[in-house]
């Protein structure tokens, strides 16, 4: 049987000409692997860095692809690790406008929606698998309040209300690419390592039906 993992990556924003999430997911478009006799196909979709429209494009991709797993990916400049996100909150609070010029402040993503949603991906197992492959990785407990969190929350709300048959969904933040840090004093990660990490995330999400016990908590 053929099964699908939907990967999404954002368009560049805030003056950058590249977004590592789009570049890395593009590299995985159409890649396949075997799991328990099934063929798993990775499908990549570009998402606009825009409030609301990002969720609309994601929902259309879900309708088109019928994935078993959905992993949304976004850039987190300043982070040193690949960071699967644990929780999405029902809040838009944009420090800068999105690519459509929208800058919502202190607004709910879904009016009267739950305060937060947990990821339904095995985030700790994903972190451990990436670490085993030599990829810096850790669990994140804040996806921010910009379009990444907006899409993450929107995804989880869709899975809770319209697509309960989809087995898992969540979000992974990734560092800058090296070329993005020429004029910045920020950490970066090679595209090759990010691509490898995302493939590991997809494989782990498909293979693990529940998460592992792993100490990943933070003090701040």
From TrEMBL:
**PROSITE patterns the record matches:** PYRASE_CYS
Q: Which GO terms describe its cellular component?
A: cytosol
- Provide the catalytic activity annotation: Release of an N-terminal pyroglutamyl group from a polypeptide, the second amino acid generally not being Pro
* Top EC group: hydrolase
Known EC number: 3.4.19.3
Location comes to: Cytoplasm
Q: Does the keyword Ubl conjugation apply?
A: no
GO molecular function annotations of the record: pyroglutamyl-peptidase activity
Q: Where is the active site?
A: 85, 148, 173
> Which keywords does this Swiss-Prot/TrEMBL entry list?
Cytoplasm, Hydrolase, Protease, Thiol protease
For the keyword DNA-binding, the answer is no
Q: Name one GO biological process term.
A: proteolysis
Indicate the family of this protein: Belongs to the peptidase C15 family.
Q: How does it assemble?
A: Homotetramer.
As for what it does, the entry says: Removes 5-oxoproline from various penultimate amino acid residues except L-proline.
Q: What name has this protein been given in UniProt?
A: Pyrrolidone-carboxylate peptidase
The organism named in the record is Alicyclobacillus tolerans
